[in-house]
Structures are given as C-alpha cells and as structure tokens.
Amino acid sequence: MLERNDMAKLLSVEYDYVIENGTVIDPKSELITIANVAIKDGKIGVITRADLKAKEKIDASGKIVCPGFIDPHCHIDGYLYNAQCYAKMGVTTAITGNCGFGPYPIKDFIDRINNEGFPINHGTLVGHSFDMRKMVGLEDPFKVATSKEINEMVKIAEEALEQGAIGISLGLEYAPATTKEEILALARLAAKYDKVMPIHSRSDSWGSVKALREMVKIQEDTGVRILISHLTYQNGMGMMKESLPIIEKAYAQGYKIAVDSGAYHAFATYIGSEVFGEGWLEKYDCIYEDVLVSAGPHVGKRLSETLYKELLATDPKTLCTAFVGKEYEVIEAMQQPYVMVSTDGAVGSHEPGTGHPQDAGTYPKVFGRFVREMNAFSMMEAVKKCTLMPAEFFGLENKGWLGTGADADVVVFNPKTIIDKAEYSGLGIPDTPPEGIDWVFINGVSVIKNGKLVENSRPGRAIHQENKIWAI
Ligand SMILES: [Zn+2]
C-alpha cells in the first residue's frame, strides 16, 4: 500500500504522458475502472482519478487502456518490418525462436536489439530441432542423434541460456528422429535453470492427441515448465474435443504446463518442411487445392500436384498456407481459461506484402471479432490472455499488468472499432494494419501515436533473463 505522503508525491510529479479518462483494465487486480494513467521514465507512475500534470495529455474517453500485448510465440527473429507490424496490432513484447529455430548466437541477438534499438521488446529462445541439430551435424531430420551429439547439443543450449535465451524450443514435427533421450537431456537442462520449454508437438492432425500426451510426459519426467505451442494449428483439425481433457487432467494434477493458441485456422509453413512430407494429403484429409502459395513468384495460387512438385524441387523454402483447420476449434481452444493468445507469425516472411494475416491481425481479431462480435469470452479474459498470462509464464515481473512501478508498455484502443484488416495472401493483403488502435507505448515511448506508426521509434529492449538454479 502507498502511504499518504507517497501518494501526494506521485500526484505532484510532472509526467511524460497522462492518458486521461480511459477505461483502464488491469488483469492482475482484475479491475476495470475509468482513471488517468501516468507515465514517466519508462514506468507507470500512478493510476488515479486525480488531475495530473504532464508534458502531453491524451484523451482516452471511451477507449480501453490496458497492458501491451505479449506474444509468447512468434518468428520475428529481429526483423524490423515484422516488429513494426506487431506494434501496429498492440504488441509490446514478442518472444521469438520458437518451433526449434531462431536467432543465433543469442548474445549477438541481444546486443543488437539493445545497441541498435528495436520497435518492441524482444526475447528469444534457443531452437533445437533445426538449429542445434544442424550445429552438431544432423542435417537430416530423420537421423537419430548419438549420445555424443546429444551432449554437444546440451552444451550449446547451456551456453545459449547463459547468454540470455529465455528457454529452449522444440519443433518435434520438423525433426521426426528426435529421441526421448535427446528431449529429456534438454528438458532437464531447462528445468535446472528454471527456463521454459515451448514445444511444437510431434504431430498435428490425427497424431496430435498422442503428441499432446508426449509433451505432458516431458513435464512429468523432468519438471520443466512447458508451453504447448499453437494448439489450434496442431490439434484444431477436429481433435480438440479429445485434446482439451488431456490438458485439463494435467492441470488438475498440478503439472506445470501452459498453452498458447492463435486466432486463425489456416497455418503457414515452408512447402519443403516435414508438414508437407509423404502422406500429407491423407494426414490432413485434404486436396492440393486446400493449400495457398503465400510467398514467391507463385503467391496467391492454389497448389496443384505439378506446382507442389515444382516448388519442392526448386524452392522448398516457399511459404504456403494450408486451409485444413476447423474455425470453430480456434474459438473452442481460446475459450479455455488456461489458453493464452499467440500469433505464430512472421514465419519466413519479413518483407512488406508477404506472409500470413496472423502477422498483422491476431490481436485486433481477438478483440474485434471474438470479444465484440461473437462474445466468445469477456474483455477482461481477453486482456489477461494477451498480457498477464504470457508475462507470468516467462517470468516478466514488470509486464502484463498496470500499476505504479510496472513497465510503461501500454495499449489504447477503441473497443467499438478495433478490427483486423489483414487477409490471406492471394485473397487480400496479409500485412494490412488493423483499425482502432490509437496509441502503443513501449517503455514509456510511443511507437503508435494517434493510430500512426512513429517510424524511427526504437524504445524496445532485449528480454534477457539470468539463469536461476531451480531447486524443487
Ligand atoms: Zn510451430
């Protein structure tokens, strides 16, 4: 509690900004109230109904003022263009390096963000299934690692964690030969330092239920805090009804698991990845035409057998979007109280006009379509899923809430007009900015001002976490 004198002091300060008369939502205290939010030197100074002095006052009447959105799962990998798209949709912190690939070396990534500046706060995981396996000579995803190679990977991961990686990510679907021994060695390392392990499961579609059990078992065997990555993209092909009870049972037993899930039912990945490997048409119960080419010279075309073979042979890194998920399962997953919102965005698309609408539309879609139009869950629940839940999972103590001393990562949006405008490549423009987001502050500096990007604004910092020795 603040003493009376402290409060008098807080009220007498001249602030950098005061956001006045907005509907302030704090997911930590679960309070919704009309108040003034004061920002100074990168922090929230005070939230009050009293009049405050400020260099700049912003009228937020009728607007929501809430913590900035924290994306637990993206692939921005330090790309400026993507980060600016994310800021436009209210993201103030994004965690990259998911699904087993990302920036490396970690030290270079962190130094670059901190030295050059970045539009948003940015942290990274160290990736196993592409990056580490490659570093020890396992180019072939079907090659089983030897004990020596596993030990080498553990060394690489330990060094990355020491340099500030916030965890180790697995993309088991992309490296099918990954053994239990290999996973457990890395999971034990992450558990030792209380770092997290986000996992893109071994299989989507029919195999996704079994794959979910495998992830829960990793938690049980090692104590590592796992994050089940993009649940809808793995289990949202008709398997959600079978999948959710497995997660609920694990929660009931006290397992340390978290779940992220996106707002779209069509996922994007490289045509040459294992996702489109042998038997994929049967796996997804689909036809070639269910897949849209989302980058390169054939962008916007539906796949055919000929085009599939051509792309595989000539440009396997071509990003493609597979319309194989169930739209209703996107909502069903997100309605669960333990599911946080993620984008899975910016996979292989770092240029204007490319990519997947999740890269520019996820959060406005959640607030505009799921909350306002469909009433799928409450505004408070939505804010919590986009802010406090990821902050708590990653241990970002000053983020994900609003109050004196919190980092001034703040979004001001209009709940009546917020909406996504991004479309799938070929059907529209995937990076069309949303509407209804007026201000985005990151560390107390505006990156979105009156609905417009401040081009040169670089207030973001690297998320750098020290290793803690975890003792149960
Ligand atoms: Zn993934």
Summarize the structure in words:
This protein has 472 residues and is α/β, with parallel strands linked by helices. The protein has a domain of 295 residues: TIM Barrel. Helix content is 32%, strand content 22%. The strands form four sheets. Strands 1, 2, 3, 4, 5, 18, 19, 20 and 21 form a nine-stranded mixed β-sheet that branches. A six-stranded parallel β-sheet has the order 9-10-11-12-13-17, with helices on both faces. The protein has a three-stranded parallel β-sheet with strand order 6-7-8, sandwiched between helices. It is globular and about 65 Å long. The two termini are 32 Å apart. The structure holds zinc ion (ZN). Zinc ion (ZN) binds next to loops.
Fold topology:
Layout: H1 4-12, E1 14-26, E2 31-40, E3 43-48, E4 53-59, E5 64-67, E6 69-71, H2 80-88, E7 91-96, H3 106-116, E8 121-124, E9 126-127, H4 128-135, H5 147-162, E10 168-171, H6 180-192, E11 196-200, H7 208-222, E12 225-228, H8 231-235, H9 240-252, E13 257-261, E14 267-270, H10 280-283, E15 291-293, H11 305-314, E16 319-322, H12 327-334, E17 339-341, H13 358-373, H14 379-386, H15 388-394, E18 410-413, E19 437-442, E20 445-449, E21 452-453
Parallel strand pairs: 1-4, 1-5, 6-7, 7-8, 9-10, 10-11, 11-12, 12-13, 13-17
Antiparallel strand pairs: 1-2, 2-3, 5-18, 14-16, 15-16, 18-19, 19-20, 20-21
The structure holds zinc ion (ZN).
